[in-house]
Amino acid sequence: MYWSTLLALAAPALAAPAPQGFGGGGGQSGGTTMLRFGCTQVVIDRIDPLVNPGQAPTSHIHQIVGGNAFNVTMPTDDVSKYATCTTCQASEDFSNYWTANLYFRHKNGSYKRVPQGGSAYQFSDRFSTQTNGGILVYYVSAAPGKITAFKPGFRMLSGDAANRKAIANQKLQNCFRCYTGPNFGGDTAAPCQGGSVDHVGLPPKACAGGIRSNILFPTCWDGKNLDSPNHKDHVAYPTSGPATFLSLGGQCPTTHPVRIPQLMLEVVWDTTKFNDKSMWPSGVQQPFVLSTGDDTGFGQHADYVFGWKGDSLQKVMDTANCMGASCSTQVPVRQTIDQAFNCKVGAKVHENYDQWFDKLPGVGDMPMKS
């Protein structure tokens, strides 16, 4: 699989010491780039400046990472001009990334937010494995052809929070992995490639090592619009499917001819403390529900507001044959995890997100769909 290929290519560089260990490598000169870094949480809040600008509270809770310009309403120009810090290891990345939270549903009807773990990837650096909640961010480019980094003001959305049914190619766009061993399993297989490793929805069983969620964004752009009314129409997946870009291929449709980096978000949910089935509601295959009220997982989604400083992301995308912990002189400036932890945004909706809830905040009156 492609993931194994990347690991094989990266192994010699990974064996050598590298400060804070994340890297990039090549879009323009025929190689492969896999920029991978962790971001701690900047805030957990019930707002969504992309889908519901100006509204507080919104219908469901998100976990947010990245720059401290995140707010109920965000500027539509260069976000990096408004942020003074970021929770990401790449200190020139003031973008914001956010996804729905995951909750455990107890048999007594109450809900508890599932904590997030650090990266489960076996070659990850200290930063990514100790984020204490947060998201692992990937920017991948692959031959053939030029990769154009996102422009200031760019935004997009992957997935549909309202979806409750499996759709064609969904496993290749959003997927969940059930870790069967301790410490999140350490599985290195490529995400969302089909087969039996990943689930389209939430895994229908107890996962001894936790659950991993991967969300792959579109890799083709119309070259004109930085956003669209539904935050999707200005971008597209390759004609051969969402994940084929990760397989060193995938042609863009003629309507969206510009190749952009493959942005992928990875979230690890530490569900291990909820594996006692005596706590589960009777008759369910799994007791977890996204903060949208979705207990299928088909509605997993993620939002992105680009905020890299200057042309720093483009420089990384133009650096060939570099990934993992290699090419330390080519990647953006790194910061320590302690610096990232010091970057915070005050919550706009004041709720204790870690208490037991009688109903899900914002969507608690909606009927569950098992």
UniProtKB/TrEMBL annotation:
Entry-linked InterPro entries: DUF1996
Family matches, as Pfam families: DUF1996
Keyword Heme: no
Keywords recorded for this protein, A-Z: Signal
Signal peptide interval: 1-15
Biological source species: Echria macrotheca
Domain DUF1996 as annotated: residue spans: 48-308
Name of the protein in question: DUF1996 domain-containing protein
Key word Methyltransferase present: no
